[in-house]
Specification:
Layout (H helix, E strand, L loop, with lengths): L1 H16 L24 E5 L12 H13 L12 E3 L7 E6 L2 H5 L7 E8 L2 E10 L1 E4 L2 E4 L2 H15 L25 E3 L3 H39 L1
Parallel strand pairs: 1-2, 1-3, 3-5, 4-8
Antiparallel strand pairs: 4-5, 6-7
Helix pairs in contact: 1-5, 2-4
This protein binds zinc ion (ZN).
Zinc ion binds next to helix 4.
């Protein structure tokens, strides 16, 4: 009983420590990186060539308003003031594109409206893709996002591109609402993070293996004990 309690306790500690304990400060605002870009202005390319059937020509203006939001203080959680520049080359820092439906196009889970996928090298963003859907199913009917909804979505995703993670405050633009819940899987390149993650996963794996082994042994012993007791 003591061994099992200990193993469960170890597993719990690892599980609780894994999501952020060491990587993100508990009391600080959740961030991926404090200042992800090593240069200014941050260039943005809006893809108006590869557009889905229900794309609206008013969407790029929502990006401009989202840019203005972050350049003028945003949600007050950035430790720096970002400056953006819209450019016409697709090799910009941030690439923005729209798709008809996120679930259909990217295989994302239901309710995902957009995602920001930053590429990280040496603790800095080197590029970020922002993919946004133009509408979603409401019940059985598909509805296109209006400009207000799109602006919120772009602002939220742009916040990720500036290093912010999700807020617990429902009034914060970085709070993940149903429409803004998204896939956020940064591609980590040449950083120490993968090693930390591998170390944590290995620790969980070893603990799990030990726990499983012990439980197997325990069951077998109990079975033997039962058999012996029944024979008596
Ligand atoms: Zn988000």
């Amino acid at each position: 009983m003591n061994i099992r309690t200990t193993i469960i306790a170890i597993l719990l500690i690892i599980t609780l420590a894994a999501p952020g304990g060491g990587l993100l400060g508990e009391k600080e605002y959740p961030k991926f990186l404090e200042e992800p870009w090593d240069h200014s202005p941050i260039t943005i390319y809006i893809d108006e060539q590869n557009i889905p059937p229900h794309y609206s020509p008013s969407y790029p203006a929502t990006v401009v308003r989202a840019i203005e939001y972050w350049e003028n203080g945003g949600n007050g959680k950035l430790s720096y003031t970002p400056v953006f520049e819209l450019v016409n080359t697709s090799d910009a820092d941030i690439y923005i594109m729209w798709v008809e439906n996120m679930e259909d196009v990217t295989g994302a889970e239901d309710g995902v409206a957009g995602f920001c996928r930053p590429m990280i090298a040496n603790g800095r963003y080197v590029h970020a893709d922002l993919v946004l859907e133009v509408g979603d199913y409401k019940g059985f009917s598909w509805q296109q996002y209006g400009d207000a909804n799109m602006e919120q979505l772009v602002t939220h995703e742009l916040g990720h591109a500036l290093g912010l993670a999700h807020s617990n405050d429902i009034r914060d633009i970085m709070y993940p609402t149903y429409e803004q819940r998204e896939n956020l899987n940064p591609i980590l390149v040449e950083t120490t993070y993968p090693f930390i993650v591998i170390a944590i996963l290995t620790a969980i794996g070893i603990s799990g293996y030990l726990a499983a082994g012990w439980l197997r042994y325990h069951k077998r012993r109990q079975k033997l004990e039962n058999e012996l007791l029944n024979e008596k």
